[in-house]
Amino acid sequence: GQSAFLELMIAQLENQDPLDPQENSAFVAQLAQFSSVEGIDKLNNSFDSFAANAISNQALQASSLVGSAVAVPATSADLDQGSFVGGSFNIPSASSDVSVNIFSDSGELVESIALGAQPAGEVSFRWDGTRIEVNGQLNNFRSTDPIESGRFRFDVLASQNGEIEQLDTALTANVNSVTVNANNQLMLNLAGVGQVNLSEVKQFN
Fold first, then answer.
1. DSSP string, 40-66
2. If we measure between CA atoms, which residue out of 98, 85, 100, 52 comes closest to residue 174?
3. With b meaning 16 or more CB within 10 Å and e meaning fewer, what string describes 130-157?
4. pLDDT tens figures, 61-72
5. Phi-psi label, residue 187: left if phi above 0, alpha if psi -120 to 50, beta otherwise
6. Contact 125, 137 (CB under 8 A)
């Protein structure tokens, strides 16, 4: 620090050889070095303060998402009674056969929905335990009693280049709260999905 530097400088002056005193240029060089170090230290402190303020501002803005829905990469979500699970998947190239398989938390297949041929692009869906809506069109009704609640996994299979591939899915969930983790990253706590980094959000609904 500054006080320690001045103490060392005064001690140096008091103990120098009076017959061969240190040149002024040496002291000027030392002062210049100290000023550089002090300037860098102040710059680091200013940057840390700026980063902390930026994170606080981001957290404040992200808190406005509480209560709204976002789409994030996920395969499982909770279905609550009277609500639905929304999601989407991207088909890389036109497929002759696309299906959505829905499994219970125990791994039991509870629904298999054949969507048939689909063009390339983004496909959105909503499932309420009774029927599935694909790109805004109702596609299937359960012949048995509707499923009212539970945790379910969504597997989307598509024929691509003569082979069956599983496509990545993004599911919609409500934001319950926003937190900042130990690495100063903004995390969204999503109902039925869990904690997800804000940067992973694909869509704000």
1. HHHHHHHHHHHHHHHHHHHHHHHGGGT
2. 85
3. ebbbbeeeebbeeeeeebeeeebbbebb
4. 667 778 888 889
5. beta
6. no
Our measurement of the distance from residue 136's CA atom to the centroid of its chain's CA atoms, rounded to an integer in Å, reads 27
Cα–Cα dist 195/153, whole Å: 17
Residues 6 or more apart in contact with residue 46 via CB below 8 angstroms: none
Predicted confidence at residue 40, as pLDDT, reads 76
Residue (of 202, 111, 113) closest to 157 by Cα position: 113
Question: Are the beta carbons of 99 and 113 closer than 8 angstroms?
Answer: yes
Average per-residue pLDDT in the chain?
A: 80
Which among 153, 1, 4, 160 is positioned nearest to 79, based on CA atoms?
A: 153
Size of the chain in residues: 205
Task: State whether residue 142 is helix, strand or coil.
Answer: coil
- Check residues 120 and 1 and name the one with the higher pLDDT: 120
